[in-house]
Amino acid sequence: MTKKIPLLIDTDPGVDDALALLMAFNDDRHDVVGLTIAAGNVGLRHTVRNALKLCEVAGRDDVPVFAGTPEPLLHPAPDAGYVHGQDGFGDIGYPPPARSAETEHAALAILRLSHEHAGRLLLVALGPLTNIALALKLDPTLPQRVARFVVMGGAVTGHGNITPAAEFNFYFDPEAAHLVFQAFGRIDLADWEATIAHGLHHERVAEWLRADSPRARFYAGISEKTRLWSIDRRGDHWYAADAVAMAFALAPEGALEVAERPVAIELQGAHTRGASVVDWRRESGRPDSAHILLKYDQDRFEGLIRAALAAG
Ligand code: RIB
Ligand code: CA
Predict the structure, then answer these.
(1) Which SS3 state, helix, strand or coil, does residue 215 take?
(2) Peptide bond before 14: cis, by omega within 30 degrees of 0?
(3) Ligand 1 atom 1, closest CA
(4) Which PANTHER family does the record cross-reference, listed alphabetically (predicted)?
(5) How many structural domains does the chain have?
(6) Which pLDDT tens digit goes with each residue over 105-154?
(7) Is the CB of 17 within 6 Å of ligand 1?
(8) Domain of 236: which CATH number?
(9) With b meaning 16 or more CB within 10 Å and e meaning fewer, what string describes 187-205?
(10) Ligand 2 mean position to 157 CA, how many Å?
């Protein structure tokens, strides 16, 4: 029997992060070896608590949760509580998780797990890249032990979601994103524009959420606020960025179109800080390190979500 692929997820739960985590928990080709938690959507205290609660609801208290860094590397940034709820999980006031996070810092856990699973590790980053950047500063050899690195972030033709030019994860900690893109020879990137290209019709999502499972029931509750916000602000489709990235991570065979290009992260610029600048005409001479997801099999994508919510 083929050994499962060890999967380490850095995440800032967040409602779309939670959907991505349920997809990972439901995939029999991967073994989730840990969750390292970033600040981003909401503050670290909430993102850690949300990760622990989601593991509990999914019956996955075997997955260790490691708290990361509460602030971006250099400059404070606004959170996205207005999208996800002030607690990041729809402000439903769920009973606190029974379990606590591990005492090991996320950056140290990333390094330790990269050694334990050297050469096989699938690393997926669904939030600001602060923990990954810190791990790189502690040990620049980290990329050598990571088999594949999938990142949700950026806006490859400049259609941002937090500023006109920048996507939230990269805008929250541009210096971290810069360090990460400098360090990894290959990053499989699912950006905001790929998210928009793979929207989920609200009526279809509502049907999936009627599945008779604790996961579906919990997810229906924590996602209601952001789904209503999305209907009001973005129309009849819901956009779950981290779910797109997780589909790309778990089932890369579903990617129908990928572009390989150099990408740089803008750190200055009154209007462009945090932008992911793609060298589409390859004028810079830098390597094509970003493998940018342009099109994914929508039916496969939706099937992964439906199955993750219905799982017992
Ligand atoms: O821009 C979308 C990203 O920002 C997603 O990862 C979402 O969870 C937020 O972190
Ligand atoms: Ca996220």
Answers:
(1) helix
(2) yes
(3) 168
(4) SI:CH211-201H21.5, SI:CH211-201H21.5-RELATED
(5) 1
(6) 999 999 999 999 999 999 999 999 999 999 999 999 999 999 999 999 99
(7) yes
(8) 3.90.245.10
(9) bbbbbbbbbbebbbebeeb
(10) 20
